[in-house]
Write a structure and sequence with these properties.
Number of helices of chain A: 11
Number of domains of chain A: 1
Helix content of chain B: 25-40%
Order of helices and strands of chain A: HHHHEEHHHHHHH
Radius of gyration of chain B: 17 Å
Oligomer: heterodimer
Largest interface: A-B, 18 and 26 residues
Number of helices of chain B: 10
CATH topology of chain B: Rossmann fold
Helix content of chain A: over 70%
Order of helices and strands of chain B: EEEHEEHEHHHHEHEHEEHH
Structural class of chain A: mainly alpha
Strand content of chain B: 25-35%
Distance between the termini of chain B: 34 Å
Strand order of the largest sheet of chain B: 6-7-8-3-9-10
Distance between the termini of chain A: 39 Å
Shape of chain A: globular
Radius of gyration of chain A: 19 Å
Number of strands of chain A: 2
Structural class of chain B: alpha/beta
Largest sheet of chain A: 2 strands, antiparallel
Largest sheet of chain B: 6 strands, mixed
CATH superfamily of chain B: P-loop containing nucleotide triphosphate hydrolases
Shape of chain B: globular
CATH architecture of chain B: 3-Layer(aba) Sandwich
Bound molecules: adenosine-5'-triphosphate, magnesium ion
Mean pLDDT of chain B: 91
Chain lengths: ~290, ~240
């Protein structure tokens, strides 16, 4: 019933989604040093932005991705400027920043629920399905994987070759030194919050296109996204790539195991949870450190 | 006209005042030393000049321009370089990237490239390790990298926080000689040091800090010669 090739493809699809969704989280976490739980809502927001374009079968998917990127990025950058930056500047403790992010998440999530409704919806766009041997792959998955790979390559060059990219790494490495070296930290941090959440918004569109669209969409996958971020080593983009691959594999092979044991695949979240706890115990700083 | 002046600096962290009414000045080409026992507030003083510690009151002037409370990232544009006491390199970045970061605010690509070359000539230890991550460097190499990084901004005044601490006598000799060379080429130095003898021997002027206050100032060698000072604040024997 389960084809190993199919499981591998499913794993790469899962990994690609986690990579897109986790990139912004790991980069902003590396700079701002607190876990932003409102991050889930940037994913959901992107998914709802997609609905404007994809409610009809002839929607332009590419346009949905761009608008989701811009809107999620804008809301994230605004939330940084209006909520988190003032708190950070007053040297608010980590725990207070976390609570603030949970609170902001509630506000965003419920606003989206009130605006777009709480029941599940679906994009109306159709995808071609290809069968290669026993392996089934959709056009959506191909675009998702390509987007994730392109993003990873582009980000690699951005972080190692450009002035802004090196500045991001410098701030993550040593914030105070970055300041006295002449880097305007606030500017770089704001840029990162924008681009990171933009990618999360893009991930939201892919997630909604692959499953359904509802206000809990982002919140439901926040746990595995935090798991890959921590597994990869917070702030480490390369660790994130490996972690996303590992968790994608673990989840999809785990699902097979679950059904083999006669358990519901709803337990798949437990896999991310187990991996998260295991990593926190064995390698609290993640794979990359 | 002094190049750099700090007047009546009161500084600390949060509500706690550490540095109390300290004034200092650096003339063009000078090496000025700040010495004093552990915890006397030397690092806090430097940090407060750059906006890294809280400045309760006081005034900071660069060429008579008021730069009190500028943002830390603007100090570089003014002409101030800073080598912190600890964590003074970007450990996750390569040696070359560390140097590039030093020139972050500059936009003269050709100038940056020739300065990079110059740093590698001046610090051959670094040239051999260009592509290595800074965390793999030895203590002495890190100190050189931190100094070279600060020099990449072409500062007029370099603020150095204990650059000779924790180095072997040989490495410390190397670093000191490079610093004196930098000074000879026209960059002024404001040097915080535990190594009182070395610092004051080479300083044109020195300040002795104790418990956040300046207890004595004067020409470097003269401070060193003062017997009671040597005993009370410098932790040295009576004899030179
Ligand atoms: N970030 C900080 N927050 C609160 N207090 C601090 C901080 N850094 C230093 N202090 C306190 O300020 C006082 C002066 O410290 P400072 O580092 O300025 O001394 P120092 O003269 O540089 O000492 P050393 O020679 O050991 O480097 C100390 O009592 C120290 O505990
Ligand atoms: Mg100190």
């Amino acid at each position: 019933m389960f084809d190993i090739g199919q499981i591998l493809v499913n794993s790469v699809v899962t990994s690609s989604l986690y990579l897109l969704a986790g990139t912004g989280l790991t980069l902003t976490y590396g700079l701002s040093r607190f876990p932003n739980f409102a991050y889930a809502e940037f994913i959901t927001l992107g998914a709802f932005c997609g609905l404007f374009f994809l409610a009809k079968p002839d929607g332009v998917f590419f346009l949905a991705l761009i608008v989701a990127f811009l809107v999620a990025g804008f809301v994230s950058a605004s939330s940084y400027t209006l909520v988190f930056r003032p708190l950070v500047e007053r040297k608010t403790s980590l725990i207070h920043l976390m609570v603030a992010s949970i609170a902001l998440g509630y506000v965003l999530r419920h606003s989206m629920g009130e605006s777009w409704g709480w029941s599940a919806q679906a994009y109306q766009i159709m995808w071609p399905v290809y069968n290669i041997g026993n392996v089934r792959i959709t056009g959506l998955w191909i675009i998702l994987i390509a987007t994730a790979v392109l993003t990873a390559v582009a980000l690699h060059f951005f972080l190692t070759r450009t002035r802004a990219g090196k500045a991001i790494r410098a701030i993550a490495s040593n914030p105070d030194l970055a300041s006295v070296t002449g880097i305007n930290r606030q500017k770089v941090v704001l840029l990162t919050w924008f681009f990171g959440a933009g990618l999360a918004g893009v991930a939201g569109v892919f997630r909604a296109a692959d499953t359904r669209l509802f206000p809990m969409l982002g919140w439901d996958i926040l746990l595995p996204i935090f798991a890959v971020t921590i597994l990869g080593g917070i702030g480490s983009f390369y660790g994130l790539i490996i972690a996303a691959l590992l968790l994608g594999l673990a989840e999809n092979f785990g699902v097979v195991l679950l059904s083999g044991l006669g358990l519901s695949t709803e337990y798949r979240m437990a896999i991310a949870f187990l991996i998260l706890i295991g990593v926190l115990i064995i390698r609290p700083k993640g794979l990359a450190r | 006209m002094p190049l750099f002046e700090a007047k009546n600096i009161c500084a600390g962290y949060g509500d706690v005042m550490i540095v109390n009414d300290v004034s200092l000045s650096v003339s063009n080409g000078d090496l000025v030393a700040i010495v004093g026992p552990n915890g006397s507030g030397k690092s806090t003083l430097l940090k407060s000049l750059l906006g890294l510690a809280h400045l309760f009151s006081g005034q900071v002037l660069y060429r008579e321009r008021d730069i009190t409370r500028i943002a830390p990232w603007q100090a570089v544009e003014v002409g101030l370089g800073y080598v912190p006491q600890v964590n003074n390199v970007f450990t996750n970045l390569t040696v070359n990237e560390n140097l590039e970061m030093g020139a972050y605010h500059r936009h003269d690509k050709a100038g940056i490239r020739s300065d990079l070359e110059e740093m590698y000539q001046r610090f051959p230890e670094l040239a051999a390790r260009k592509k290595a991550r800074a965390e793999t460097l030895s203590g002495g190499e890190r100190q050189l990298l931190a100094i070279a990084r600060a020099m990449m901004a072409r500062p007029r005044l370099l603020l150095l926080d204990e650059p000779l601490a924790f180095l072997s006598p040989k490495a410390s000799e190397v670093v000191l000689n490079r610093l004196l060379q930098i000074q000879a080429e026209g960059t002024s130095l404001l040097l915080v040091e535990q190594n009182t003898i070395k610092a004051l021997q080479n300083a044109s002027y020195g300040y002795i800090l104790n418990e956040g206050r300046c207890v004595m100032e004067g020409k470097g060698p003269q401070l060193l010669a003062d017997g009671s000072l040597r005993e009370r604040f410098l932790g040295l024997g009576k004899e030179v």
